[in-house]
Amino acid sequence: MSPVSKQLQDQSVADASSQAPSHIEKIMLAIQREENLSPKATLNRFLSLHFVISPSPSCPQQQTPAIPTQPPFRPIGAGTCGRIYSTPDPTTIYKVSNHPGQETDQLWNDYLIHTKVSSIWDVWGRDNIPIRVPVQKYYVSATDQVWWDANLAHFPRRLLDTLSNLLAAERIPAVGKPIREALIDMYCPAPQRDFFKADVSNQDCLIRLYLGKRREASRSRFRGFQLRNYTLCVDQMEKLELDASAFAAGIAEALAIVHWACHVDGNDVEFVLGSGAPEYVSLNKGFSFEELETMKPNSSTWNAYRGGFRERSTHVWMLDFNRCAMFEPTHDGLKQLVNSFFRNDPYFPRPHATLPQDRELWNVFRETYLSTSEICIKKGKMAKEFEAAPKLFLDMVDVEQKKRLEGRKAQAERSSMV
């Protein structure tokens, strides 16, 4: 077999599991067909945090994921810290460092901080927090000759030809095909839609929630369309009649827990819409006696769903902790939080907005952040003098945003005089 043929075969095997529709996606496709939903109605229905999918008698409660015998790892994303690869296990991704061992290698910090945050999510109860955090699985050092001898050949050689540090983590499932194709129908010019629907890379679609940004009118010609890390801005949420305040409240709650339960600054974390994780039974947590009693004797349970679940079509996930750091609740620590707030992509609403709906989003964010912070401080039994710290942080954000707006106004006035 020629190298090109081998590469194409590996690509087709790697793509097979990503193309297989999940249980939730099958239900979404059935609803879309039965109700003849338009692209806008599809996005309004399935991107809503209020839409819940219940099991249907016509949809099986089991699925058998495709497990190739050889695991070519397919690149599905990249950032400054590392490149992301899918694996034959549909619940696992590999994040491989771009600069192993160098000062810019932040992968171990990602592992460390993410594990701390994940442990707090476990303590609070993952079902009790609206924002999900992927589970970290294990870390592989660039010096681990045993692991790399067994796996290096399965990475694309053009992207990875030497040993590196690697982090294995829970994969955030991409949004379903009905959502992906509706986004293309809504926001991609008609002549290019079929091309982008067929683009394999667009299957890896996670949607960034930009609650602090509205799109500007573009004068440039159409140059492409990419669903990986697609950004959904506030004006789009309004057009789709989505409940942006629900997104704002969930993100505010998560940020407050990160700050005041984890004591992490949240620098450069991301908030994305993805699907819910499939509820496979973990090897560490099998079925209970009561659950087994309801099953037919000799039932296979390795790939079974827990019966009767109710699942949302989408979930908001928080990820990427590689640039995060711990902080102390001092004045300098609060300045660290403010810097992180503005250094992030515009996931958070902003104070002093021009439009009333944006001001309302900030109010929802602020109130939820403060109420959740109060719970965190009481749970953590922090000293009484720290009770005012969350409000002081938001007040400092308010002052900084006002200063930035005044600076932009002055710059615009100077430009108009030239």
How does this model look, in words?
- The N and C termini lie far apart (66 Å).
- Helix 3 crosses helix 6 and helix 11 crosses helix 13.
- Strand 3 and strand 4 form a beta hairpin.
- The chain has 418 residues and is of the alpha+beta class.
- The chain is built from 13 helices and 12 strands.
- The strands form 3 sheets. The chain has a 5-stranded antiparallel beta sheet with strand order 2-3-4-7-6.
- The chain is globular and about 65 Å long.
- This is DUF3669 domain-containing protein.
Which properties best describe this structure?
alpha+beta, 5-stranded antiparallel beta sheet, globular, 13 helices, 418 residues, 5-stranded mixed beta sheet, disordered N terminus, DUF3669 domain-containing protein, 12% strand
Based on CA inertia axes, which overall geometry fits? globular
Strand order of the largest sheet: 2-3-4-7-6
Tally of strands: 12
Q: Could you state the oligomeric state of the chains shown?
A: single chain
Largest beta sheet, briefly?
A: 5 strands, antiparallel
User: Mean pLDDT, as a whole number?
Assistant: 84
Give the ordered list of helices and strands: HHHEEEEHEEHEHHEEHHEHEEHHH
Spatial extent as radius of gyration: 23 Å
How many distinct helices? 13
Q: Gap between N and C termini, in Å?
A: 66 Å
Indicate the structural class.
alpha+beta
Percentage of residues in strands: 5-15%
User: How helix-rich are the residues, as a percent range?
Assistant: 40-55%
Low-pLDDT ranges: 1-18, 56-69, 280-284, 305-310
